[in-house]
Amino acid sequence: MDNIQLIYIILIVSVTFILYVGIKNIFNRKPDLYKKRQSYVDRHEQYMKVLDYYMEKAFDIIYKDRILVYSISGTKPDDEDIKKNSIDFAKLTLKLLGNTLTEEYVYLYGDEETFMFIIIEYFNTKAEHDEIKQASINQIMEGSENETIWTFFWWSKKTYYIYHW
């Protein structure tokens, strides 16, 4: 009788362990990666709006602090300044996004290197198409004293006011 009881105890412990592992796997199942990636694709436009908002804020900060001086004078900053500004822009963008959003964007783009490339490319493209710099260059090239470099637009109650000086 001792052998039969020992066999029953081993059988009960084995079945209990198998049930425990099975139930644990069912309730602790990781989300399906396909569904997770599909949800990122479905909400891609919203992710891009958020990213664009924070990159625009970061660009405004970097532009006012470091690039505006070059734009007004119509000159191009040297390569070291461009590289430093683009890296600082990327760091500021990541800081504005926060850890959680940064992790989601890294997952969305596959790795951190690709995400950083997209941020830096945004900065470089935006800095190349600087309207103030282009107006300054046109002013210098035309050499006309009658035209103004600065034009500011002011909007009030659906009326646009243009100031030149």
Task: Please tell me about this protein's structure.
There is one protein chain. It is rod-shaped, with a radius of gyration of 30 Å. Strands 1-2 form a two-stranded antiparallel sheet. The chain is built from 6 helices and 2 strands. It has a domain of 112 residues. It starts with a helix and ends with a strand. The C terminus is likely disordered. A hairpin with a 2-residue loop joins strand 1 and strand 2. With 165 residues, the chain is mainly alpha-helical.
List keywords for this structure.
two-stranded antiparallel ribbon; 76% helix; 165 residues; mainly alpha; disordered C terminus
Number of strands: 2
Strand order in the sheet with the most strands: 1-2
Give the helix level as a range of percent.
Answer: over 70%
User: Main sheet?
Assistant: 2 strands, antiparallel
Between the first and last Cα atoms, what is the distance in angstroms?
107 Å
Radius of gyration: 30 Å
Q: Could you report the average pLDDT, rounded to the nearest whole number?
A: 79
Shape: rod-shaped
Low-confidence stretches: 146-165
Structural class: mainly alpha
Strand fraction equals: 5-15%
Q: Number of DSSP helices?
A: 6
Order of SSEs: HHHHHHEE
